Amino acid sequence: MNNTRKQNLESLAKNLLEEWGLKSKGWTFCWNSRKRSFGVCSPRLKTIALSDYLLPTINNDSAEDTIRHELAHALDVEERGTSDHSWKWKQWAIKVGADPTRTKSHDNTEASEELASQSKYTLVCKKGHKSPSHKKRKRSVSCSRCNKEAGLPSAYYEKFKMEQIRNY
User: Fold this and answer.
1) CA-CA distances (angstroms) from residue 123 to 32, 42, 153?
2) Checking CA distances to 157, which of 79, 115, 141, 148 falls within 20 to 30 Å?
C-alpha cells in the first residue's frame, strides 16, 4: 500500500482529533487489520481506527468520510457516554462533515476481488461478482452488486444468492 496515502490519512485523523478537542481528552488514532469494517471507534480504548487491510478497497474521499464518521462517534461518546447511529450521532456526523449513514461499500471492485482471493472463503454470484468472506456462513447471502444493479434495496434475494467457496 502507498505509505504516503496512509501517512496523509493518519495526519488528517490526528488533526481532526486535535481540532475537535478529543486529543486533550486522551483520544488517539491507530490502524488495525479488521477484515469486515473500514473504521471503528473504541470508547474503552479512546481510539478511532481504520483498517489498513481494507484501505485499498476505498478511495480517499471514502477513507476521509470514515475517519469523520468515527470522529462523530467519539464526540457522541464524550457527550452522552455512549454512541450508536441515532439522531444524536447523526447531528455530530453532520457537524464534522461526515455522511450520516451507517455503512459504506467498497469503491474499488478490483481491490475487493483481490482481497476475496486472499480470504479464507470467497462468495461468488451467478454473474461472477466476488467478495471476501472470512468465516463459514450459516445463512445465505445475496450479491449486493446484483441487488444494486436491479435497483433493489439491501436485503436477501434468492435470485442473487452467492455461493461460498473455500480458498485454502
Assistant:
1) 23, 29, 19
2) 115
Size of the chain, expressed as the number of residues it contains: 168
Distance CA 53, CA 134 (A): 13
The Cα angle at residue 23 between residues 21 and 26, in degrees rounded to 5: 120
Distance CA 157, CA 147 (A): 8
- For 25, the grid coordinates are 481528552
Q: Which residues pair with 132 in a beta bridge?
A: 122
Question: What nine digits make up the cell of 52?
Answer: 489498513
Summarised one tens digit per residue, pLDDT across range 93-122 is 999 999 998 666 555 566 666 666 677 888
Amino acid, res. 43: P
Q: Which residues contact 37 (CB under 8 A, 6 or more apart)?
A: 51, 54
Q: What is the pTM (predicted TM-score) of this model?
A: 0.69
Distance of CA 164 to the CA centre of its chain: 22
CB 63 within 8 A of CB 48: no
Using the structure block, give the residue that is written with the C-alpha cell 485454502. Answer: 168
CB atoms within 10 A of CB 65: 20
In one-letter notation, the amino acid at residue 91 is Q
